[in-house]
Design brief:
about 30% helix; Nitrogen fixation protein; binds iron/sulfur cluster; about 130 residues; 6 strands
């Protein structure tokens, strides 16, 4: 089985672009992922707002190579915090997402991960500003 994807990856060549932030700060999910290249990364980094603040990218979950990985639980420690902090209930019908079958967050938290996913960029940004 292919490895699970982190839905909060940085912009790097080979990463899959799967969402774009709209004017309201919510993520609009693409029907299909777009694999980005160095040209995309270089161009996006020339803008004032970094690509991670405007787009969502997925790449292979780094597990213990990531600071969010919980060695104790052997899972991603970030998604549980997001679900708890945002506390939005899952709708009966999930919004379409091109990476769901391989998403680490969905694998761990199911529909609750998706219910709290589309403002992650904005909220992380807000927390950084408020810190
Ligand atoms: S949590 Fe749900 S909506 Fe967010 S990236 Fe994963 S599958 Fe897509």
């Amino acid at each position: 089985m292919a490895s699970l994807l982190c839905p909060s990856s940085t912009a790097k060549p080979g990463a899959a672009l799967f969402g774009i932030q709209d004017d309201t700060g919510h993520i609009q999910y693409l029907e299909e992922t777009v694999i980005i290249d160095q040209v995309f990364v270089d161009t996006a980094r020339q803008q004032v707002r970094q690509p991670e603040e405007r787009f969502r990218f997925a790449s292979n979950c780094a597990k213990s190579g990531c600071g969010h990985w919980s060695l104790q639980n052997s899972n991603c420690g970030l998604v549980g915090k997001i679900v708890e902090a945002m506390n939005r209930q899952a709708d009966a019908t999930l919004i379409a997402c091109a990476i769901r079958t391989r998403c680490r967050w969905y694998d761990q938290e199911g529909a609750n991960a998706c219910a709290n996913c589309d403002e992650v960029v904005r909220n992380i940004r807000t927390q950084e500003v408020m810190a």
